[in-house]
């Protein structure tokens, strides 16, 4: 009965899921692979390259570049990792007493203090309630632990929503351009259509509702059912923090057009400008008078960013409001197939949303660490932005928030020609040359999307402050040479 | 009124089709009852620590230190952390620049993957390449990634054992593929029947389905059978001739309760068979920290190892892994510790060995107690749990019980399990959640409740079952 052709193994490139083949993720793409190869070369032959080290400015991974974790958080997590420690008197000699207290409280919420057990598929109830209380304290509006789904980072939560929403390539999701390429990749993986809306570089990456309307109508005219709007606030890679009025218009737009609002708010604690504040979309919606029944809204948060930067822990959640019980059941069902997210990450999410308060023993040192990191990030954002803007042929919007700068490269025809000859996009060509000359790794703007004919790179603000001057001078040196080489 | 995108009717159909009974109807009902104050014994999921199994001490010490590396500078650290735990924490921290809080390589920390490769080499006697080992947030994520890579459309079929762990059916549904069932032979100790397998494949092909892969769970879940070397050989030959990639779910490889058929990995058998099979058959093997005697379900640590996949395919799998950035780092460290545990001579070795031995011996005992307990019940027949963590007794429901179930609008085994739950607080998963032959009913329970609770649990079950049978069958024939 077998008609199989022996010698043609089943899992080759031409027999893979085409959606897998289609998706792209530049943050860890080609340029990073190249950097890793160069790094290996450096290890073998320290003098073989014009630089001493590779500086990974491609990924929002603060602790890999020397940022220290928040001590109190790590104390609590450590105790929860080994609850038997709490039964030893010697533990008081090693851990602060409020961390011990907090660990007790957290373990009380976990049946049997068993941090190694699968939890409820939405996450441990007591921790979800704590997170909800944190959300309520932040926004001034009620939040329920039943609406929280704790996930291994915010990314799996995004995937879950795409899975739910996308039925075929006729389902479209409105995404900002430039965007964090998780969205484009996820949409491709789930077989949907990305409907781009362009942020306006001239106005500090402004998000205009007119642009949303225009793109929505165009998509609809092509037979696409637009299902949701993704807004990243603060923006990635663009760093803009939306103004309240702007957010209100966005909420109204979603309401009027019947779209689910997917609010990526993972950078909510990374704000570097005095005149802007983070307002959650939930708060904005409730301020406008929309209740749980009026507006489907999914808000994503993560432990990877902010001042805590705990990327490797894979902690995060989505707060899901405005859905029918039947739909909630479906979300729960999908979550249950993976059983649960990692428990340590769940605990960390609750710490992030309910950190030490005034009066706690660790409060002062916690605040010192927190403010130290945030103020340093603000200084680095400014220093790098000014440096980029000081260079011929580069303009750079301010990083109001998040962790990135997205300078625009005004490349000459000659440079563009050289890129074409090399068979790469101009920004990828620039990024490769930058890497090879300086060891600095950035991500080409094409990885995020940009207005056609414009070129950018995304560079993080995360190298430690004492490295920034050297980075700036190396970059400057490279760029000036590059400009001279390719003068028209 | 215009339909809203997240109205139930507007959802992705593939999502709606998904079933995952392990946390389905019975579990939800049990949780409700628990909220009302009823004592529930959750035997629905392989979750050892939730039923009182203690975590192994050494790994917890190591991870607690990695979590708070500033402790290493504290002069008092030796008061509660033994020297080998301290050394091991330093070992992993050195492998993870940036510590636990940095995204690692998307495939996992290279040093840990090397430890996994060393473990595999030691276990099987064949070299293993760390570049072909990817760490994942639990084995389930790895399974999903691989299935997503294989399934292109509804005409791609995946051979799945029935009964199976419903991750497979759920994932196939989610990715829009076709499940091609092959039935395990209950009378032959849940053995594989190649005649039946060939039949299933032929039938699928006649319907226009391209069968792409075969899932094997060894030891089995829910069935617990341990495959013999001969059977695995036959399987590999079959995959070779039928052009299938073998997906070997080996997460229970440390849970073996008989000595006739120790665990042997699919990869070892493949390499033992030599060429051409050893070069040609595509194989992906899965493992986890959630089972064995570790039971660290909540850490979400797992890996898959790829054998004979073309480099370009591996690149695509890497690409998709990179979108998720990296698996959680503490879970990776647990994996490293599991494959590279304390050795004789290490300070913590004796305690570690004693803890491990105690858990495994107790599991073996409980496997026997549960099998024997079920077999002593009226109309219940139960194969021995040779491995894994479950018991899957067959419940021979009398016709009147089946009718009562129909009237209640429930599948017969769901009906039985709900009644069992309400009467005894024992929360199981009906066999229909795993698949079974038409008209044959089972339930899955775990062997995980504490040893000292076993007599009470088994007698509670027996009382319920025998009364149930009495009720629906009348007096037993003498």
From TrEMBL, chain A:
The keyword Mitochondrion does not apply. SUPFAM superfamilies: PLP-dependent transferases. Its EC number is 2.6.1.2. Keywords: Aminotransferase, Pyridoxal phosphate, Transferase. Its cofactor is pyridoxal 5'-phosphate. Gene3D superfamilies: 1.10.287.1970, Aspartate Aminotransferase, domain 1 (3.90.1150.10), Type I PLP-dependent aspartate aminotransferase-like (Major domain) (3.40.640.10). Pathway: Photosynthesis; C4 acid pathway; Amino-acid degradation; L-alanine degradation via transaminase pathway; pyruvate from L-alanine: step 1/1. The keyword Transferase applies. It is an enzyme of class 2 (transferase). It catalyses: L-alanine + 2-oxoglutarate = pyruvate + L-glutamate. It comes from the Eukaryota. GO terms for molecular function: L-alanine:2-oxoglutarate aminotransferase activity; pyridoxal phosphate binding. Residues 111-462 form the Aminotransferase class I/classII large domain. GO terms for biological process: L-alanine catabolic process. Pfam families: Aminotran_1_2. Transfer of C3 units between the cytosol of mesophyll and bundle sheath cells to maintain a nitrogen-carbon balance in the C4-dicarboxylic pathway. Homodimer. Belongs to the class-I pyridoxal-phosphate-dependent aminotransferase family. Alanine aminotransferase subfamily. This is Alanine aminotransferase 2. It comes from Digitaria exilis.
Automatic annotation (TrEMBL), chain B:
Signal peptide: none annotated. The keyword Transferase applies. Its cofactor is pyridoxal 5'-phosphate. Residues 85-447 form the Aminotransferase class I/classII large domain. It comes from the Eukaryota. One of its GO terms (molecular function) is glycine:2-oxoglutarate aminotransferase activity. Transfer of C3 units between the cytosol of mesophyll and bundle sheath cells to maintain a nitrogen-carbon balance in the C4-dicarboxylic pathway. This is Alanine aminotransferase 2.
């Amino acid at each position: 009965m077998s008609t199989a052709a022996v010698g043609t193994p089943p899992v080759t490139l031409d027999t893979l899921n085409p959606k897998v083949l289609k998706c792209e993720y530049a943050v860890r793409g080609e340029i990073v692979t190249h950097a890793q190869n160069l790094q290996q070369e450096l290890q073998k032959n320290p003098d073989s390259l014009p630089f001493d080290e590779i500086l990974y400015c491609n990924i929002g991974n603060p602790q890999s570049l020397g940022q220290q974790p928040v001590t109190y958080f790590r104390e609590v997590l450590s105790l929860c990792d080994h609850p038997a420690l709490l039964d030893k008197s010697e533990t008081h000699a090693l851990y602060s007493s409020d961390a011990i207290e907090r660990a007790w409280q957290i373990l009380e919420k976990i049946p049997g203090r068993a941090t190694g057990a699968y939890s409820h598929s939405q996450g441990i109830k007591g921790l979800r309630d704590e997170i909800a209380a944190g959300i309520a304290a932040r926004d001034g509006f009620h939040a329920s632990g039943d609406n929280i789904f704790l996930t291994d980072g915010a990314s799996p939560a995004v995937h879950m929503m795409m899975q739910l929403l996308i039925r075929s390539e006729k389902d479209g999701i409105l995404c900002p351009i430039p965007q964090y390429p998780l969205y484009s990749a996820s949409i491709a993986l789930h077989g949907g259509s990305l409907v781009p809306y362009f942020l306006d570089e001239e106005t500090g990456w402004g998000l205009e509702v007119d642009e949303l309307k225009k793109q929505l109508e165009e998509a609809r005219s092509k037979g696409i059912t637009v299902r949701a709007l993704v807004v990243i606030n603060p923006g990635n890679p663009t760093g803009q923090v939306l103004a309240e009025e702007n957010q209100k218009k966005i909420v109204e737009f979603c309401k009027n057009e019947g779209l689910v609002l997917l609010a990526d708010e993972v950078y909510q604690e990374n704000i570097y400008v005095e005149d802007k504040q983070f307002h959650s979309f939930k708060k904005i919606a409730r301020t406008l008078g929309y209740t749980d029944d009026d507006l489907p809204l999914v808000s994503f948060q993560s432990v990877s960013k902010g001042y805590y930067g705990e990327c490797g822990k894979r902690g995060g959640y989505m707060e899901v409001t405005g859905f029918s019980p039947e739909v909630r059941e479906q979300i729960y069902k999908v979550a249950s197939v993976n059983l649960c997210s990692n428990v340590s990450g769940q605990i960390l999410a609750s710490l992030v949303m309910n950190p030490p308060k005034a009066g706690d023993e660790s409060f002062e040192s916690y605040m010192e660490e927190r403010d130290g990191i945030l103020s340093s990030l603000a200084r680095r954002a400014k220093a790098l932005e000014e440096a980029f803007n000081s260079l011929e042929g580069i303009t750079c919007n301010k990083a109001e928030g998040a962790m990135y700068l997205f300078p625009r490269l005004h490349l000459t025809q000659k440079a563009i020609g050289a890129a074409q000859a090399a068979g790469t996009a101009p920004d990828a060509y620039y990024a490769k040359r930058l890497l090879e000359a300086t060891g600095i790794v950035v991500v080409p703007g094409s990885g995020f999307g940009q207005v056609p004919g414009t070129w950018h790179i995304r560079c993080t603000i995360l190298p430690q402050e004492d490295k920034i001057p050297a980075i700036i001078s190396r970059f400057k040196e490279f760029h000036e040479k590059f400009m001279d080489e390719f003068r028209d | 009124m215009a339909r809203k995108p997240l109205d139930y009717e507007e959802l992705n159909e593939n999502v709606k089709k998904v079933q995952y009974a392990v946390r389905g109807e019975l579990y939800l009902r049990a949780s409700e009852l628990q909220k009302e104050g009823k004592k529930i014994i959750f035997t629905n999921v392989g979750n050892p620590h939730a039923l009182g199994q203690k975590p192994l001490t050494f790994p917890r010490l190591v991870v607690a230190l990695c979590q708070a590396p500033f402790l290493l500078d504290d002069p008092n650290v030796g008061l509660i952390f033994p020297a080998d735990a301290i050394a091991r924490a330093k070992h992993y921290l050195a492998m993870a620049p940036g510590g636990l809080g940095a995204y690692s390589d998307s495939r996992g920390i290279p040093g840990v993957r090397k430890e996994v490769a060393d473990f595999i080499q030691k276990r099987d006697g064949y070299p293993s390449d760390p570049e072909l080992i990817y760490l994942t947030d639990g084995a389930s994520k790895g399974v999903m990634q691989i299935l997503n890579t294989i399934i292109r459309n509804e005409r791609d079929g995946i051979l799945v054992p029935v009964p199976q762990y419903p991750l497979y059916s759920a994932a196939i549904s989610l990715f829009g593929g076709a499940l091609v069932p092959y039935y395990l032979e209950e009378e032959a100790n849940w053995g594989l029947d190649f005649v039946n397998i060939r039949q299933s494949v032929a039938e699928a092909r006649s319907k226009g389905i391209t069968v792409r892969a075969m899932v094997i769970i060894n030891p089995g879940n829910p069935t617990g059978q341990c495959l013999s070397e001969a059977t695995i050989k036959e399987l590999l030959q079959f995959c070779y001739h039928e052009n299938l990639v073998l997906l070997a779910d080996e997460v229970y490889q440390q849970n073996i309760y008989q000595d006739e058929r120790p665990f042997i990995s699919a990869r070892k058998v493949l390499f033992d068979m030599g060429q051409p099979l050893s070069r040609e058959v595509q194989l992906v093997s899965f493992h986890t920290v959630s089972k064995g005697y570790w039971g660290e379900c909540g850490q979400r640590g797992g890996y898959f190892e790829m054998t004979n996949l073309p480099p370009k395919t591996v690149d695509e799998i890497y690409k998709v892994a990179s979108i998720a950035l990296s698996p959680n780092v503490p879970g990776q460290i647990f994996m490293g510790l599991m494959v590279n545990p304390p050795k004789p001579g290490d300070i913590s070795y004796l305690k570690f060995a004693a803890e491990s031995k105690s858990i495994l011996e107790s599991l073996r005992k409980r496997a026997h107690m549960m099998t024997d307990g079920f077999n002593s019940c009226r109309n219940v027949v139960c194969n021995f749990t040779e491995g894994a963590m479950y018991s899957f007794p067959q419940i021979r429901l009398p016709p009147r019980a089946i009718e009562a179930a129909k009237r209640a609008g429930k599948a017969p085994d769901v009906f039985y399990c709900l009644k069992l739950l309400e009467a005894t607080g024992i929360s199981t998963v009906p066999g229909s959640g795993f698949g079974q032959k038409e008209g044959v009913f089972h339930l899955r329970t775990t062997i995980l409740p504490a040893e000292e609770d076993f007599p009470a649990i088994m007698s509670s079950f027996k009382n319920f079952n025998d009364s149930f049978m009495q009720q629906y069958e009348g007096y037993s024939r003498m």
